[in-house]
């Protein structure tokens, strides 16, 4: 069985060798002509500066290419590469216009034994638009991370303005010119150059733009700092009939900057005193911070906003139990119930009522009209002592039990 396999394998090998030999003979001895298409061969644009002189710019600039129809000996055609060709377009050699332009190419270099069959038809389509210039103020989008208790004092960009040149459609897309990059663990003043990029309104980079400066210098100044609380200081008293129910600060703490010696002396920062005596409704005031000498606010803002919550006090009533002091009782009579009390009803604003107690109320009863013993009902008199914004609205009656003395 193995011998049968060998008998069929040997003829196959012989046929393969004969075929390879025939191919070598045809390729190297006969070397017949053949055609081949070489696609996407790069085209170089020369004298491109002439476009700017003519106030033109290429729309959506890209790598231009052409497809070559080649003819030549098989041995030459099979080894040809794109790099063997140098194809150019002279942008200064033709009268151009806005819109689409068909510009013929020039074959500068090509393999000697290769014929380019479509040479006379080769060209590229270049879409042109008006060239525009526009200035942009450069902004920093450099991501900066500072070490602990190190804060940014100032950022300076130099130059501040960049001039962008490009096609009208590209220039109109530009929303801002920015510096991009990243700095970590910054703990001292630093200067670095960053690439200028042009971004559209969505943050996408706009290409095909020439700038008078490719980079700009970002100078970062730092200082020491810490976070401290803010204390509100007030003067005066809220107007009568109103009550201050609370207040809110736009921020309760602030990052302050300065040298370590000055920072160590500051544990909190006060506002300048606010006179609240004229407040009669909810109010929002801008209040200046009293920053010590040598101390600045990190954000440069030395004021905060304070929302005062003020309510008008409503009249309320309150009952107070008071001792009744009697007088002018006939010397032949005596009181059986000497510890007489009554309820006195007061009306006024709550803040005023809170200051009143039984000590501020004198309740008296004149018994000069009593001539005989018995039980009698009277309404005593009451007067306020040191009571403002409060009135006596009602006095409870009392029963007096009178007996003759033995």
TrEMBL record:
Signal peptide: none annotated. It comes from the Bacteria. This is YbbR-like protein. The lineage of its organism: Bacteria, Bacillati, Bacillota, Clostridia, Eubacteriales.
């Amino acid at each position: 069985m193995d011998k049968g396999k060998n008998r069929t394998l040997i003829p196959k090998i012989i046929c393969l060798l004969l075929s390879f030999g025939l191919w070598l003979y045809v390729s190297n001895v006969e070397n017949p002509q053949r055609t081949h298409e070489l696609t996407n061969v790069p085209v170089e644009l020369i004298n491109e500066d002439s476009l700017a002189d003519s106030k033109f710019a290429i729309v959506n600039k890209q790598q231009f290419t052409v497809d070559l129809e080649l003819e030549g000996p098989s041995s030459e055609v099979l080894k040809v590469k794109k790099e063997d060709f140098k194809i150019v377009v002279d942008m200064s050699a033709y009268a151009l216009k806005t819109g689409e332009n068909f510009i013929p190419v020039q074959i500068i270099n090509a393999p000697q034994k290769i014929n380019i069959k479509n040479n006379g038809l080769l060209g590229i389509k270049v879409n042109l638009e008006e060239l525009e210039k526009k200035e942009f103020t450069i902004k920093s989008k450099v991501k900066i991370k500072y070490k602990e208790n190190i804060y940014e004092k100032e950022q300076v960009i130099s130059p501040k303005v960049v001039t962008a040149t490009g096609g009208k459609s590209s220039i109109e897309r530009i929303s801002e010119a920015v510096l991009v990059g990243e700095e970590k663990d910054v703990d001292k003043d630093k200067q670095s150059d960053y690439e200028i990029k042009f971004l559209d309104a969505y943050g996408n980079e706009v290409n095909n733009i020439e700038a008078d400066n490719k980079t700009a210098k970002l100078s970062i100044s730092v200082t020491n700092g810490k976070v401290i609380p803010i204390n509100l200081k007030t003067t005066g008293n809220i107007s009568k009939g109103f009550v201050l129910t609370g207040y809110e600060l736009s921020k309760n703490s602030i990052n302050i900057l300065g040298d370590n010696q000055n920072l160590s002396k500051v544990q909190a920062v006060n506002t300048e005193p606010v006179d609240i005596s004229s407040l009669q409704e909810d109010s929002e005031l801008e209040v200046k911070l009293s920053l010590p000498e040598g101390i600045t606010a990190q954000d440069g803002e030395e004021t905060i906003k304070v929302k005062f919550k003020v309510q008008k006090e409503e009249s309320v009533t309150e009952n107070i139990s008071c001792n009744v002091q009697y007088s002018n009782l006939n010397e032949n009579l005596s009181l059986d119930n000497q510890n007489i009390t009554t309820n006195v009803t007061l009306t006024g604003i709550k803040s005023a009522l809170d200051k009143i107690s039984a000590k501020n109320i004198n309740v008296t009863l004149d018994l000069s009209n009593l001539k005989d013993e018995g039980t009698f009902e009277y309404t005593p008199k009451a007067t306020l002592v040191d009571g403002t914004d409060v009135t006596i609205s009602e006095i409870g009656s009392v029963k007096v039990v009178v007996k003759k003395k033995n």
